[in-house]
Amino acid sequence: MTVRVGILGATGYTALELLKILVRHPEVEITALTTRQEDRPHISAIHPQFHKVLDLRLENWGPQEVAQHCNCVFGCLPHAASASVIPEFLEAGLKVVDLSADYRLNDPAVYTQWYGGDHPDAERMKTTVYGLPELFRKGIAEAQLVANPGCYPTGVTLALAPLLKNGFIRADGIIADCKSGASGAGRTPKMATLYPECNESFTAYGVGTHRHMPEIEQNLTVYAGKPASVIFTPHLVPMDRGILSTCYALPDNDASEKELLSLLEETYANEPFVRVRSDLPATKHVSGTNFCDITVRRVKDRVLTISAIDNLVKGASGAAVQNFNLMYGFAETTALL
Amino acid sequence: MTVRVGILGATGYTALELLKILVRHPEVEITALTTRQEDRPHISAIHPQFHKVLDLRLENWGPQEVAQHCNCVFGCLPHAASASVIPEFLEAGLKVVDLSADYRLNDPAVYTQWYGGDHPDAERMKTTVYGLPELFRKGIAEAQLVANPGCYPTGVTLALAPLLKNGFIRADGIIADCKSGASGAGRTPKMATLYPECNESFTAYGVGTHRHMPEIEQNLTVYAGKPASVIFTPHLVPMDRGILSTCYALPDNDASEKELLSLLEETYANEPFVRVRSDLPATKHVSGTNFCDITVRRVKDRVLTISAIDNLVKGASGAAVQNFNLMYGFAETTALL
Amino acid sequence: MTVRVGILGATGYTALELLKILVRHPEVEITALTTRQEDRPHISAIHPQFHKVLDLRLENWGPQEVAQHCNCVFGCLPHAASASVIPEFLEAGLKVVDLSADYRLNDPAVYTQWYGGDHPDAERMKTTVYGLPELFRKGIAEAQLVANPGCYPTGVTLALAPLLKNGFIRADGIIADCKSGASGAGRTPKMATLYPECNESFTAYGVGTHRHMPEIEQNLTVYAGKPASVIFTPHLVPMDRGILSTCYALPDNDASEKELLSLLEETYANEPFVRVRSDLPATKHVSGTNFCDITVRRVKDRVLTISAIDNLVKGASGAAVQNFNLMYGFAETTALL
Amino acid sequence: MTVRVGILGATGYTALELLKILVRHPEVEITALTTRQEDRPHISAIHPQFHKVLDLRLENWGPQEVAQHCNCVFGCLPHAASASVIPEFLEAGLKVVDLSADYRLNDPAVYTQWYGGDHPDAERMKTTVYGLPELFRKGIAEAQLVANPGCYPTGVTLALAPLLKNGFIRADGIIADCKSGASGAGRTPKMATLYPECNESFTAYGVGTHRHMPEIEQNLTVYAGKPASVIFTPHLVPMDRGILSTCYALPDNDASEKELLSLLEETYANEPFVRVRSDLPATKHVSGTNFCDITVRRVKDRVLTISAIDNLVKGASGAAVQNFNLMYGFAETTALL
Predict the structure, then answer these.
(1) Residue of C151, C198, C247, C292 marked catalytic
(2) In this structure, is residue B144 part of a structural domain?
(3) What CATH number does the domain containing C121 carry?
(4) CA angle centred on C171, ends C170 and C174, rounded to 5°
(5) Contact state of D193 with A191 under an 8 Å Cβ cutoff
(6) Are A25 and A63 spatial neighbours (Cβ–Cβ below 8 Å)?
(7) How far, CA to CA in Å, does B305 sit from each of B98, B283, B330?
(8) CA pair distance C311, C237, nearest whole angstrom
């Protein structure tokens, strides 16, 4: 079975990474790429990596034209824009993996607080499945629409969820100090992400105000069974890709470092894309892969977790294909190893 | 007055940076550079930056030969090696700024616990002044020997000390999540600091075991007036120089963010090298300078400080010259602006 | 059919890249990895990328032990060491792709001049096929031993060979100004490739003395049908991977830029891994791929070619698998797209 | 004597570097910084490096207002814009160092060919002195207006001029293969200079069309005493600053490598900022300095020169201050060592 697949908003870095994975997928035919540009640029003019690999033009198509060409779409549109068009795809019977933030939160009031404005599709967001297969595999497999997780929430949630679920750490007082490569800032020209501004510099940004904070808290609250409180501090690293998340939590039992590590190992023993390590993860070891590497440490009165992902793969496009595989009943690792 | 100055162990990055500063210092004549190499290499063969700038050879000299040429030495030797030779310089009447870790701690037992072995000069270490001018200016000015602070402790201490001293934050439960450029790892060839290992990677190291942890705690204990407890997590950033320290502390009063910032601004109003900012510091803004940029934030139930230094300047060689200026009564900013 | 494959010298960057490709190869079982280390390290201790991916230890095996486990070996040994052991593998009936320089040249005197010492297997080197499929596909398919090309010679030869063969440029007076990422310098700790030495620096090296110069000249001489003379200047770029080669040649006819481009396009129209472009190649566009991107320009009295490869893929391990595919009759692109 | 100095167009990287140098200059008072922005931003909001260092706002001033505050201006305006306002400053009696390209060429027709449009001040451009002190020191000292050289032309000219002047190389058939850090592309947001586009990539640009080509040819023609012909190929290096120029020329006599090196050493023996080296220059060795490092090699039938500068210092702002020092009779190295 071949699925005809489209990408909405194909000019950015997540779309680029998605295409790299999809061209290797044996069950996929890429049939539509969209953009707001009017001049129908060839994909190799936007992403020269696809010269001689993919012979397709980007089209300024609306939902109806896309729906004529596709069974499934990956949404790489900005927030709000995404939820404005996705309902039309769903009504047309397509499956959708949405990489925007629009369907991740399930409380419209929280959405409005952090993203501003009313949610364009508020009823649906309340029940949309959150596409972290390690936590919600069954729901994803049955869904027509999956909300692909944010990059930071992926690394933080995978590290902390088992510890919360099993009562090893407390749900309050969590600190997530996270560091991301510059591709996370997108491909729109801005002074802050010019090479001579980012290179040879390290800085925090969005301290206390980043929109991934409520997303992390929502995830951890599910696992804790009570409200989780997280201070989330993102930083910008002078490298293309990769996120390292260093999390600090208060222990809720007297488990040793060895017991903490065992819990993680047991939790993820059969997960194809989570690797629990006793040594320290590095973003380079997961670069270009769909893996999340995790370790845990006991330091003084705190439990530390350190996790590494590639923000463009496990933090975006790899996870999207993992979700796609589940939604269509393909082997979950197809095109991802 | 011209001070004849020597550098012990002149082949590494701190010595390189020290020389860059000292060649601009109007009161300094550089008269001795030492190494264990036997072949008397010209400084421009070790650091090509000094071609046509400094015409001096590195000598495999012992303390007596150095003492004949110098009034003052900067020690860039490894720990333990440093404290084994420094007593001889002091007895010969020289002033010494020691950039090694040997005289920073003042408890020999703590030294042994973290560095291993007995301290070679234990009595002296108990009373050696810690060369952070913003905190110990008077003692430095009167000292014959100054222990130059570690890079990480400098950034963390300058951010937290005023908050502790004035009862704004608690001394326990402090987290210092710090990120350093690769020059901090030194110039000795190791696989871990090869370009293709560090580049495009981000990782933690020395989690819970780094030797700067007790140094930070010693500093903060002085300011808190009670034992401070710090979890210190260093990370390696793919850049040459710079340290950003993100610290999380529990508030000990109900001061607002504005009041926290005002306290820092007042504390450092007359300090030439500490800049309190309302926006977020970046290592690039202090690169190549002796500045420490600091801000403070109130996020949920925590006080956050973010500080940036150049690890080779304010975190090592710039601070060393600042101490030198104080020890000789020169204007503190000489050669540093 | 599954080929049991071994890698000789599996600790470096070419072996790492080879393994990344081979784990995706549907016809390959990796059965042996060798090292001189005695402690049988697990592959994930050497290359943490293979944690949970490849469960194999590196063995200090000699040819006989390797031959018992494998049908084919990839040699990632240093020059001279490689040609000292490869004859034993060939006698044992194995196929060999040698990534060292030992069998690339076919004149033992030239080898001695550039590499020093007598060649350990001089007779065989004279007739070993040079593993550039675009030029020697038929010979590779029939060979038991293939000499995998050097990284720089690959990019330069693919750009210039068609122009020489068709009489568009002269064989003398060629200049190849080439720029490579730091992974080309290998994984052995050296001061010159420490992060703080390479980063934020650009330099030439091996000017007039690099061993790829005679290899390039040998290749171009075959195509010109007369002795080619090349000045080859390699440079080190602060990036992990990629080679850009800017070549300057004297035209030997009055072809326009358009005609030059057409010649290249026609030559490579059916080549799966050579992409002729009208715009300028960038190493990023071929990073992680087996592609060679080429363009050509006419500037004043010169023909310029600019070609880009990933030095670790098309310049080493990808080419090795391409050769392997040909030697075993697999589709040439298997595991490489 | 204190000179009141202004910078026209103070928001970019050359202005930033100029300010870093000027704040150290003992004879300079910075009195005006201009921008087209209307909101009078503080310099520390544009360049946070100057927090607590320089207390000045950028003003949207025209020539008359600037002239009221300054004795001398440095022009960091775009080409054409620069020559449109500079005549007013000159008429008001100010001295001007123009860092734009407007007065570098001395043939209006060549200007029109490469920059487009008529030159706004064509008569003056014909006679404006070219601010390369090593070649035109006397003219600079007497000038009211100096055209500060382009970054690429500086490195290429300093390497080749002595060889041309003394008949060691031919004026035709010169190739200048140059590599620059990304700060050379300026601070205006563009997709091509976003961090994730430049980082881990190496590419050529402006092949055969870069505007520094006629500037290089004009310089070399002066020295050769006959028309020089140069093929100039610029490349973009993933680093902040630095230019390495690898030049290939045909020898015009039978001088040995040693004789070539001696000629350069003698030529530049008394130059404070040119360092002739026997080993290979690296951009890191001149980073942050006003030095130009040069070496020369004889390879086969060519003379190779390799030169390194910091594009922002010797290639722009350092050279501008060197010119300023000459124009005011200050020691040429003031604020530059």
Answers:
(1) C151
(2) no
(3) 3.40.50.720
(4) 90
(5) no
(6) no
(7) 28, 14, 32
(8) 12
Asked whether the predicted pLDDT for residue C229 surpasses 80, the reply is yes
Tally of domains in chain B: 2
Contacts of D179 in chain C (CB under 8 A): 179, 202, 235
Percent of chain D with pLDDT over 70: 100
Q: CB–CB of C125/C105 below 8 Å? A: yes
Asked if B23's CB is within 8 angstroms of D275's CB, the reply is: no
CB atoms within 10 A of CB D37: 12
Please check the confidence at residue C1 and state whether its pLDDT lies above 80: no
**Beta-carbon count within 10 A of C192 CB:** 14
Chain B, window 190-219: residues with a beta carbon less than 8 angstroms from a chain A beta carbon = 197, 199-205, 207-208
Per-residue pLDDT reduced to its tens digit, C300-333: 999 999 999 999 999 999 999 999 999 999 999 9
Q: Which two tokens stand for residue D103?
A: 């007065």
- The reply to whether B266 and B185 lie within a common domain is yes
Kindly state whether A306 is in contact with chain B, defined as any CB-CB distance less than 8 angstroms.
yes
My answer on whether A167 and A250 are in the same domain is: yes
Inside any domain, residue B136: no
* Token pair recorded at residue C181: 């990422």
Interface test with B, best of D20, D24, D51, D287 (most B CBs within 10 A): D51
> The complex's ipTM?
0.97
CATH number of the structural domain spanning residue C190? 3.30.360.10
Is any Cβ of chain B less than 8 angstroms from the Cβ of D239?
no
Residue of B nearest to C200 (CA): B240
| Distance in angstroms (rounded) separating the CA atoms of residues B240 and B181 | 5
- What's the pLDDT tens digit per position in C47-71? 999 999 999 999 999 999 999 999 9
D91 and D172 housed in the same domain: no
Q: Measured between beta carbons, which residues in chain A are less than 8 angstroms from residue B175?
A: 175, 248, 302
In sequence order, the β-bridge partners of residue C233 are C177
Active site residue C292: no
Residue B271, amino acid: E
The answer on C107 and C182 residing in a single domain is no
Q: Say which of D197, D204, D306 has its CB closest to residue C280.
A: D204
Paired tokens of B278: 């309302």
| β partners of residue C246 | C177, C306
Outline where A133-233 has alpha helix (H): 133-142, 151-165, 195-198, 212-224
Pairwise CB contact (< 8 Å): D202 & C297: no
> At what angle are helices B151-165 and B212-224 packed, to 10 degrees?
20
- Give the pLDDT confidence of C145-199 residue by residue, as tens digits: 999 999 999 999 999 999 999 999 999 999 999 999 999 999 999 999 999 999 9
Both C38 and C173 in a single domain?
no
CB-based contact, B288 to chain C, within 8 Å: no
**Among all residues of chain D, which has the CA nearest to that of A48?**
D197
Per-residue pLDDT tens digits for D183-192: 999 999 999 9
Could you give the 3-state DSSP secondary structure of residue D14?
helix
**Contact of B323 with B21, CB cutoff 8 Å:** no
pLDDT of residue D179: 98
**Which residue range is the domain that position A269 belongs to?**
151-311
**Pair (D155, D199) in one structural domain:** yes
B98 HSE (CA, 13 A, CB side) = 30
Mean pLDDT on B291-316: 98
Residues of chain C neighbouring B288 (CB-CB closer than 8 A)? none
Query: Which residue among C202, C241, C302 places its CB closest to the CB of D242?
Result: C202
**Could you tell me where the beta strands, DSSP code E, fall in A238-282?**
243-249, 274-276
Specify whether B167 is located in the same domain as B281.
Answer: yes
Tell me: do B110 and B192 sit in the same domain.
no
Q: Does residue B291 sit at the D interface (CB-CB below 8 Å)?
A: yes
Hey, is the C-beta of D270 within 8 angstroms of any chain B C-beta?
Answer: no
Q: Does D143 map to a domain? A: no
DSSP string, B149-167: PPHHHHHHHHHHHHHHHTT
C133 falls within a domain = no
